[in-house]
Amino acid sequence: MLILECPCCGVLADETELAPGGEAHLKRFGPGASDDEFEGYLFMRENPRGVHFERWRHVNGCGKWFHAARDTSTLEVFGTYPAQTTEPPRDIRDRISARRPGWTWREFA
Fold first, then answer.
1. Whole-model pTM?
2. DSSP of 36-74
3. Is the pLDDT reported for residue 73 higher than 50?
4. How far apart are CA 33 and CA 39, in angstroms?
């Protein structure tokens, strides 16, 4: 079972209290975007085996959105942080690098 700590209220919640929101750190395109940019936003998602950054909502708690860094193969959680953060905090990236040598942060365009 996946257990994440909500960084907003500090509660350790299992996946039944949470709602997944897809990949984190996507660049959203609005009016004036090209068809290719909008198509990429809608349909082009990472689905890695390994380290992944996801959006979650603490539905049966504070109701706030947050991001989680975890390994999709092992369910190992590297950390959670507020959804307003534009990239994972340095301590989470360092924790991932220590556990997964050779891992690099994917730059989002």
1. 0.86
2. HHHHHHHH-----SSEEEEEEE-TTTT--EEEEEEETTT
3. yes
4. 10
